[in-house]
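User: structure tokens for this one?
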Amino acid sequence: MTLSSTPTPAVNTANRLARYSGWYLLATGIIHNAIGLIAGGSILAGIHQDGWWNTIESAAGINFERSAIVWFLVLGFFWMLMGYLMQAWQRETRKPLPAIIGWGLLANGIWVAIMLPASGAWLVLLQGVILIWARRAS
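Assistant:
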């Protein structure tokens, strides 16, 4: 009995999906921040009207609404940056991403989906599954 070195359709699909995983995460970050800018526009306008500098925390305490929109947008930018880094890794090394990236995305996706099921957490969860699937298939 000989083993075939031809990848199965499942392996091909997993590898094809994982090849673009960085672009998926970058797109997730763009969508995330577009939603943040639209939903948080009035909050950002208030920050702008107050001059940006030191407009989140004052002697009265932290303005959690303002803090939330800032961190919401920061997270989106980090997803974009990480997505770009993931694509650069794959382009430069010609290797699949480390499994820990997939497991980290999966864990964070699950954690957020449990607390906030009507959210984009499912996109992050799915991206983790794709990376784990591709890693196991290769």
